[in-house]
Prior knowledge:
- This protein is of the alpha/beta class.
- The chain is built from 12 helices and 15 strands.
- Helices cover about 30% and strands about 25% of the residues.
- It comes from Dysgonomonas termitidis.
Amino acid sequence: MKAVTIIESQKVAVLEKDKPELKQGEVLVKIKYVGFCGSDLNTYLGKNPMVRLPVIPGHEIGAVVEDISVNVPESIKKGMSCTVNPYTNCGYCPSCRNGCPNACQHNETFGVQRDGAMCEYIAVPWQKVIVDKDMNPRDFALVEPMSVGFHAVARAAITDIDNVLVIGCGMIGVGAIVRAVLRGARVIAMDMDDEKLALAKRLGAVNTINSKTEDVHSRLYEITNGSGPDVVIEAVGAPVTYQTAINEVAFTGRVVCIGYAKTEIAFETKYFVQKELDIRGSRNAMPEDFRAVIEYMKRGTCPKDELITAIYRPEEAQKALAGWAENPGKVFRILIEF
């Protein structure tokens, strides 16, 4: 079978791999679409310390159930469209014992700590397969990245009385915007790209801030009547956006961090104490976040076509990643179609 493989920094090839054989309790899925995410781009650029090359990237999966082994529930049938929860969980670490398998201490995510799904077939435990008769494989490929944003909103415990600033309107930020709006919050979207901000507005953001052309502090002061946002969700992973989150959040506010910076960051730590802040990490997503995204997408209000920047064949993966690296601010999601 074909498998897109990042061989070394900025070198991608399509290699031939053996088709996986089913083990007891596993499902063989035929891959239709796989999305490239930021971690894949960092792997391509040689900036992902968690990856050991060569690696098959991809954990944003739209697929069809190809075959089923024994001991798989009857609810999973051949021919069903599906996605796959791409994280592992050990079951015994502190995170797993506390009911947070998404943050498993020993997690191995597809395309990062282990080979991913950018190939023609993968075999996975049935517990990781999510099927829905009303979804198609292309739409399923958008579920995982949006679920990461949904999970951040859950971590922030957002309600309808919150002013929420989402920093970064890429795919994960979009998920956070959508979920916060669904919870009734007033959302402020911040980015440097006007097209992304316009989409955020259509998704329900009440206010937008272009951090490249506007004074962020002045605009937030105006929008929140001087209080600052109750919640800030950081979905970029840059020193300046982390600092903005801490500096601008309201007293006794919550800061939720999804992105992680590649360098150390200096903070005014007095704000941690003076504001009595809750600073929370948000990693991956829970099964209920996947289900919530699927239900949202089935409503028919999600602008799915706008979230797909381009679709490439496996042989064009190098071109896709190189183009993204040259113009990162203009990409929502790039899909590889098998």
